[in-house]
Amino acid sequence: MKLVRYGPxxxxxxxxxxxxxxxxxxxxxxxxxVIIGNLCRDLNQxxxxxxxxxxxxxxxxxxxxxxQTKENFADHTLVLxxxxxxxxxxxxxxYHCDKNTSxxxxxxxxxxxxxTQVIRSARLIRTYTISGELGQATDTHYHDGKxxxxxxxxxxxxxxxxxxxxxxxAAHQRSSLSFLGINLHSQExxxxxxxxGLVRPGEKSPPLLYGINLVDFNxxxxxxxxxxxxETGQYLHTLIHDLGITLKTNAVxxxxxxxxxxxxxxQHALLRKHWSLEHIINNMAECRPLVHSITxxxxxxxxxxxxxxxxxxxxxxx
Length: 318
Hints:
pseudouridine synthase activity; PsdUridine_synth_cat_dom_sf; 10 helices; Pseudouridine synthase II N-terminal domain-containing protein; 25% strand; RNA binding; two-stranded antiparallel sheet; Pseudouridine synthase; eight-stranded mixed beta sheet; PsdUridine_synth_N; alpha+beta; elongated
């Protein structure tokens, strides 16, 4: 833990990537405002920079002149206001997290906000735990929507649900090769999968599931673990709804939580009670090796304070 008491020193350290735990029913826009407000509050409580001084020449025209330095009241906080204001802090998110989704949320602060586009272009995979409830369906496929239908679910077992998930995962595995434009049963497909690893489509491509597992089953409640890319909150809610139809019943999503985004996990995420200047600076130091691990030009990305980073140069080197 680094303890900083001088405002300008703390401001110079606020350049990097931050990982927080986003609560449910909170938009990323409101989360951004809360973090900026907390940073400005804590920065203004630190020892500020010295007040600037002005040179004053006093005396009569024909007499003796005296040169003195005085305090510049135009630079006083009572005139200018707080040294650090919300418009001075830049915060951007790597991906837009849905309002009803909680969990890992990666942000960039000040010069670190330039890294959000670089991390986004790395096409990292996100992992969610999705909780659902059998026996009812709503108009939004989420539990807070209007209930449209209710049905029995006594015939649903763990085995039936696991078998219902297999075709969904297999269909997405087949569709992943369609992004490469090659035949699934060809030698070219085998070599592509063995050499390149997972297929990661572009940002505007449809959602792609890499894995879907049943981690808990306690009727009518169940929990899935889903690894995917290009997903949205509505897509995950619809996934639970379609699963209920496949099982000849209904299902509605009750909770969506992101537990991993690339190398960032829940252990790296700051809780809301820790959204303060001291914890944010230390969290940036913890996230710097993670940024280094996913970017090709590590020296310029690890030390964000040395120079401005050109994202176009980073992509060209990669």
